[in-house]
Amino acid sequence: MERTDAEQKLVELRIEHRDLDEVITRLAETVDLNEIQLRRLKKRKLALKDQIARLESALVPNLIA
């Protein structure tokens, strides 16, 4: 994956992660809370966080200490 492609993917993942955070917050505030849906959204959010971390570390050049 080229650097610009990786950077674009990183932006997209961050947006999706932020959007999921908002949906989870709104869903948690509803009266008829759907626990299964909430759990699935939280798992997806965690998976996105992992993908973001992997992409960020791939974009950082390796430094020899």
Q: Topology, pairings included?
A:
Layout: H1 3-29, H2 35-59
Helix pairs in contact: 1-2
Task: Name the descriptors.
about 60 residues; mainly alpha; 2 helices; about 0% strand
Order of helices and strands: HH
Please, how many domains? Answer: 1
* Average pLDDT rating: 89
Count, helices: 2
User: Roughly what fraction of the amino acids lie in strands?
Assistant: under 5%
The largest sheet is: none
Helix content: over 70%
**Main structural class:** mainly alpha
| Bulk shape | elongated
Distance linking N and C termini:
26 Å
> What is the rounded Rg?
15 Å
Q: Low-confidence segments, ≥5 residues, pLDDT <50?
A: none
Number of strands: 0
Structural account:
The protein is mainly alpha-helical and 65 residues long. It has one domain. 80% of the residues lie in helices and 0% in strands. It has two helices and no strands. Helix 1 runs antiparallel to helix 2. The longest helix is centred in the first third of the chain and has 27 residues. The two termini are 26 Å apart. The model has no long low-confidence stretch (mean pLDDT 89).
Please outline what is shown here.
This protein has 65 residues and is an all-alpha fold. The chain has one domain (3-59). The protein has two helices and no strands.
